[in-house]
Specification:
Mean pLDDT: 90
Largest sheet: 3 strands, antiparallel
Number of domains: 1
Strand content: 25-35%
Strand order of the largest sheet: 1-3-2
Radius of gyration: 10 Å
Distance between the termini: 14 Å
Number of strands: 3
Order of helices and strands: EHEE
Oligomer: single chain
Number of helices: 1
């Protein structure tokens, strides 16, 4: 599992937009919360 840390996420709309952006890139997040995303994928290169 890979964890991404994202600055300046302050509301639920931020969570929704980040989740949609990751899904558009075919990176299905396991969990998206304020400031943090956990991805199932470990190799992002």
């Amino acid at each position: 599992m890979t964890t991404l840390y994202i600055k300046n996420m302050v509301c639920n709309r931020c969570v929704m937009v980040v989740k949609q952006a990751l899904e558009a890139l075919n990176l299905n997040p396991e969990r998206v919360s304020l400031g943090e995303v956990q991805l199932k994928e470990t190799n992002l290169s």
